[in-house]
Amino acid sequence: MVDLKSKSETKTQFTAALEFQVLTSQPKPTPRLAHQWLTLHFHRRFMQELQSIVDILNYAQLKVDFSAVLSFLLNLPRLEFLSLKGANLSGSVASSGARTTQCSAVLEAVDLAENGLSGPLSDLSTFVHCSSLSSLNLSKNFLDFNLLLKDYSSGLRLKLGVLDLSYNKISGHDVVPWLLSGGCGDLRYLSLRGNKVSGGIPVLDCGALEYLDLSANNFTSGFPSFRDCSSLQHLDLSSNKFSGDAGASLSTCKSITFLNLTNNQLTGAVPSIPGDGMQFLYSPATISTAR
């Protein structure tokens, strides 16, 4: 993020930033395009030098359709991190031609949590032009899994390290296979917590995965199998209907420090995790002992 105080035009830039904070905190008479507000109230040179709009836009009450800000902000050539968390954005991630939006070549992270965004997960293809994007947070929105047939077969098409889709309206049997159909070699963090995802989970071969939260869903399959869980540290599968013996699946997960398996239908012994790094273990009170 640009250090405003380190620039020669500190006063001008800082005043512009404050002016924008005041501007975005007031109700808009009409939902005009966000780029009109920005270009009117920001010095152009400041916008060209800006690398991150994090503190300025976090919780700013923009109250506009997402496409009104997307097409302008993603084109800032030096934008590395964009946070529009809690900005009262609505509409679809891919509305009004946003699928063809170009993107900053250095954009690494986008945080759109706590808004009113809706539409199918396939709309995330909007970000396919963001070649450096590694982190995407869309938690606490209204996304769903109502895909068209052509989108169902294509999968997510994004190579992300962090993907947070917790607390949306996602339901269906094949959500996890769809998300991972393009591979998960770079994925470190995945959260689907608080949705209504059901069905099964493919054998997970995500060697870099450190954090997996599938809690508070409707999974009814056997306990997930891991081909490679060497990096896995946080695993929360609580409040589902997973069944079977968890011990065999977790026997090679040597890095786990947090494990929550409560409120499932598991059998077998309480899993014995190799190594001595376990810090938080929540095991089902009703789990049976090994026979």
Q: Can you walk through the features of this model?
A:
With 291 residues, the chain is an alpha/beta fold. The protein has seven helices and 20 strands. It has a ten-stranded parallel β-sheet, with no helix packed on it. The protein has a three-stranded parallel β-sheet with strand order 3-5-7, with no helix packed on it. It has a three-stranded parallel β-sheet with strand order 9-11-14, with no helix packed on it. β1, α4 and β2 form a beta-alpha-beta unit. The protein starts with 9 loop residues before the first helix and ends in a 9-residue tail after the last strand. 36% of the residues are buried. The N terminus is likely disordered.
Mind sketching the topology for me?
Blueprint: H1 10-25, H2 34-41, H3 44-49, E1 52-53, H4 66-73, E2 81-83, E3 90-92, E4 109-111, E5 116-120, E6 135-137, E7 142-144, H5 149-154, E8 162-164, E9 171-172, H6 175-180, E10 189-191, E11 196-199, E12 204-205, E13 211-213, E14 218-219, E15 226-228, E16 234-236, E17 243-245, H7 247-250, E18 258-260, E19 265-267, E20 280-282
Parallel strand pairs: 1-2, 2-4, 3-5, 4-6, 5-7, 6-8, 8-10, 9-11, 10-13, 11-14, 12-15, 13-16, 16-18, 17-19, 18-20
